[in-house]
Structure formats: C-alpha cells, structure tokens
Design a protein that fits this description.
Blueprint: E1 8-9, H1 29-39, E2 47-48, H2 64-72, H3 77-83, H4 89-112, E3 114-117, H5 138-147, E4 155-159, H6 166-171, E5 178-185, E6 198-202, H7 208-225, E7 230-234, H8 252-268, E8 273-276, H9 285-303
Parallel strand pairs: 1-2, 1-3, 3-8, 4-5, 4-7, 5-6, 7-8
The structure holds zinc ion.
C-alpha cells in the first residue's frame, strides 16, 4: 500500500480508555488498525491528527445541558448506564477527539474526494442523551459541517453498521438537507427503532450475496430519490459472521465487496465521501482489525 494517498485521521487517544476487565468494547482496535496500516507501508504523512471537537461551535445542534453534564461528569448513573461506559475525564477527552476526527475527515473529504477517520460512527447519540457506547453524534455534526460549504446542499448519511442509526435518524428528522439511510439487522439493538429517510431492517443470518444485494438497492435508491452532494459512510463491521454483537452472516470478503461498492458508486458520481469505521466487537483484536482493514483495502482499490 505504498501509494496510499487517501487522507486518514487518527489520534492515539482513540485507544486510550481504561475500561473494567471484560468490558465488551474492544478499545485497542484503533491502535491496532493504525499499526497494521503502518506495517503495510502506509506513509506516516497520510495520517492527520484531530483536535478535540469544540461543542460551543455547534450549539444549538445538541442540548447544552446534556453536553455540559457529560463534560462535568454530572450525568446520572442511569444516563451513564445507557451509554455503557463508566465516566472519566479520559472518556470525555477521547470522545471529543474522536468527534473532532470525523469533523476533520469531513473537511479533508471535501478537498480530496475521500477521507477516513479511524474511529467514528456514534450513531446512537441523540440530542440530549447518549446510548450504546455513543455520546456525541459525529455523523450528524459532520453533515452539518459539510453543509456550511456553498456547493454542498444535501448530505447523505449511509449507515451500514449492523445496528440502526437511531440517534442520527432522530437528530436529522426535521432536516430535509440531511438524508439518513440505515441498513441494519431488524432483530438487534436498538429495539425501539427511529425513522430514517430509508430504513432497511434486514433478517438475521443474511449471507454475502443477499446482504450485498440490499446494500446495492439501498444506495441506488437513495441516490435516485434524493439530491446528494456528499456522503458520510458508516462502514461498521459488526455485520461480520464472527462479531459478538451482530446477527448477520457476512464474511470478510463480503465486507470488502460492500465497502468497494459504496466507494466506487460514490466515485462514479463524483460524490465526496467521509468514511468512519463504525462498530465491530470481536474480542480477538487481530481478527477484528483484519475486518476493519477491508474499508482501507477497498479505498485503495477504488482511489489508486
Ligand atoms: Zn453497531
């Protein structure tokens, strides 16, 4: 991958979070993914370092009381349980830098056609509460950031994580210029679904061919029905057959096919894409890294 020129966004803090033993979140995957790209010859200067997101810049997109409570560690025990992480200063710092990473990737995508954040996809975060390991909805904020550009009037958030992008759907529900599409396993978290512009609630145990067919239909339909100037792609790999939290039966090759199809389709239409790696919960970090790497392999195939 010596010629890999696509701008990537990474900060070591992505993996710096002390979690209780056996916590199911594979926090080391970000560092592992970064290292695997370096090991394969991706040059150091391809990586961009984000700064923490400044939420004062984006009010009133999110609820100030909630964000202030999160920063100060003043959310209730119940609110933190819903998020799924114990509160710490480290958690806040990591979260804000991760969101800053997606915002930086959004800028880089508009300049370069494609950029990838080595984290992101916090699609269960709502206006005034967090949920399912998500506190601040980076996808929604990135869409708003892209819309600040004169030539971007409509942004598609194409969410292929196995879980529904419920927070994104709710946040963008009254925003015609943000189009939300979610392909997810219907019988999976969140059990109370929100309404995206297009929702594809997939059956359990779908294999590669059936899954890819749905992805193709979803993206083609979205691009046909809505005017789209830019795309935010959540390339969650919890669709993988070995994932601890997914219920689909998609192979590593299937993940590659999906990512390549999405990136190629957008490239053919000259749509800038900001991609985030999204969910992926195998406990075996090396195996999980390999699945997340498919996005980068596909990006390399499409953009080199
Ligand atoms: Zn997920």
């Amino acid at each position: 991958m010596q010629q890999f020129k696509i701008p990537l966004v990474f900060h070591p803090i992505y993996s710096q979070l002390d979690l209780p033993e056996r916590h199911r979140f594979p926090i080391d995957k970000y560092r592992s993914l970064y290292q695997s790209l370096l090991d394969d010859g991706v040059a150091d200067d391809v990586f961009n370092t984000p700064t923490p997101y400044n939420y004062a810049d984006t009010l009133p997109l999110l609820n100030k009381e909630y964000v202030d409570g999160l920063v100060a560690g003043k959310l209730s025990a119940k609110e933190m349980r819903r998020i799924g992480f114990p509160w710490s200063e480290q958690l806040v710092k990591r979260t804000f830098t991760a969101v800053g990473g997606t915002l930086l990737a959004a800028e880089l995508a508009l300049e370069n056609g494609l950029a990838i954040n080595l984290t992101g996809g916090y699609h269960h975060a709502f206006y005034d509460f967090g949920s399912g390991f998500c506190m601040i909805n980076d996808l929604y904020l990135a869409a708003n950031k892209m819309l600040e550009h004169d030539d971007i009037n409509s942004v598609l958030i194409f969410d292929c994580d196995v879980h529904q992008g419920d927070g994104t759907a709710a946040l963008a529900s009254d925003r015609d210029e943000i189009i939300t599409v979610s392909l997810h396993c219907e019988k999976n978290f969140p059990y109370r679904k929100q309404t995206s512009n297009l929702d594809f609630g997939l059956d359990k145990h779908l294999d590669d061919d059936a899954y890819i067919e749905h992805v193709e239909q979803a993206l083609n339909l979205a691009l046909k029905c809505f005017p789209v100037d830019a795309v935010i792609y959540d390339a969650g790999v919890d669709i993988h057959c070995d994932d601890d939290l997914g219920l689909l039966n998609v192979s590593t090759a299937g993940v590659y096919r999906r990512d390549k199809f999405v990136l190629q389709t957008c490239k053919n239409k000259a749509l800038p894409v900001v991609a985030v790696i999204g969910g992926g919960y195998q406990r075996d970090i090396d195996a999980l890294t390999k699945v997340h790497r498919q996005l980068f392999n596909a990006a390399f195939a499409v953009h080199s």
